[in-house]
Amino acid sequence: MRSALLSLGSILLTFAVVGNAYYQKKQFYPSVVYITKSNPSMGVMYIQAFVLVLLMGKLMRKIFFGQLRAAETEHLIERSWYAVTETCLAFTVFRDDFSPKFVALFTLLLFLKCFHWLAEDRVDYMERSPVISWLFHVRVSSLLVLLGIMDYFFVSHAYHSTLTKGASVQLVFGFEYAILLSIVINIFMKYILHSYDLQSENPWENKAVFLLYSELVMGLFKVVLYLLFMTIMIKIHTFPLFAIRPMYLSLRAFKKAVNDVIMSRRAIRNMNTLYPDATAEELATVDNVCIICREEMSGTGSSKKLPCNHIFHASCLRSWFQRQQTCPTCRMDVLRAPAPTPVQNIPNIPPVGVPGSPPPAPQPQAPVLPNWPGMGPGFVPGAFPGMFPFIIPPVAPQPPVLNADQPVAQQNATQPQQQAGPTGGRANGSEGSAASATPSASQNQQGPNAAPMLMPPFPMPFFFPPPPPIPATDLSSLSTEELEAMAGQERENLEARIRCLRNIQTMLDGAIMQMQQYSSLIASRNINVNTNQSTTKNSNPTMNGGHPNNPSSDSNEELRRRRLNYLQGNRNSGPEENREQQG
After folding, report:
1. What value does the mean pLDDT take over residues 395-410?
2. What is the pTM assigned to this prediction?
3. CA-based, 20 to 30 A from 454: which of 10, 245, 358, 429?
């Protein structure tokens, strides 16, 4: 509706301008001269030309595309804003050549760019559409031929104009139409490949390869054109600011094409060498329908199993890896190297019963803490010395009894291992006793089979002194690493205790300060109350038959004074004042 109103308004304005010029000059040529010399008349003519371009665009869209899809309209509007911005920047660069012809050429360039973008989106739609009619083929083929002819014509025109008249604005139009011609060639190649794939009964496996390499070649061609254009423009004119964005997009597209070629070849090589063929048993246990082509798979070597245990057709995977290198189902990266399987080095140890075989080495076990009644999940034995003095440390486990028919050499080899256990336990116990100075250090000597000591059935008083700490072992027998570890643990424990004491001191200071504030606040409120009462008594000395020296009022004041003195810590002031009053 708005476009119709705009068209009608522009037509009425154009008729008014032409009629006014002819009414004043009475002849055709003087009327044309009058219109070209009048700025308002030229403005109306420019608006009419813009409306004619829009109407021509709608007519061509109806002929070659029919109804545009939502995605095509969105892409057209998004790209048109950038194209208009680049055109305005080009006007600033070529402000000396600014003329109606220059504006018309840039408008025509923008007009043809829009149809190139629409043709690219429509050909890409062929791959996603299951049914393609003959009208679609007629429209696309005729549009591509028309765009190719126009691009070639403008390229040749710019070339001859540059040779005859020298470097001018036609150089810019020549490079722009050359890039559009490369886009038309790329679209035409895609159209041929999609059409051949639609005519074949089975999916064409090599289509993705041709598409990938065609995009790579055309991307390289556009990058070379933009580099050549930038070099020529900087040399003969100035820096082309309007060409920065399209050149960057071309470089990024070319880099993506190169990366896709490398990654796809690597993924296909991994598929052919690393991934096994799916067997009939594996296909029977899972769904044997390939989610890429929606056809059933057979166990004749035509299916591949990915590391994520998903199975697809080998041909479908090859086409899929041309576009993206992930699993179609779980999106796992197929280029990621599989994690190496850890191989456990199992020594070749003969059985224990064989004569001459060494005895099995005892496995180190973590010390098991006793499960005392009332112990929470975060309870640490020895954290509060003197709290549970009646709990007796568990007894160390007894050495195992050897068989009578065991060789003597094996018994001698077992004894040092039994002696090493209590020694290590005493070392650990010395560390614990030095850190906490409590008898809880002997808990590290507890074996896995030791029974925990339970609380006695009768109540025990908690004021008994704790038992003396177990004396530490000889530190000279410890190694340098053990001494350094023990020193580090001792220092960490000491620093933790100091930090805890400082936190307690800070909390106590804060509590004392709050109590002082409370006391001062209560004292100030009592003083205000006493002042108000004394003022009331002085103003009404005989109120309610009272007297300023009434004993009841003195007793109330004395009670308040005692409360205040009690809060301030002067507990002895009350009795002294009572004795004075009694005296």
Report:
1. 45
2. 0.54
3. 429
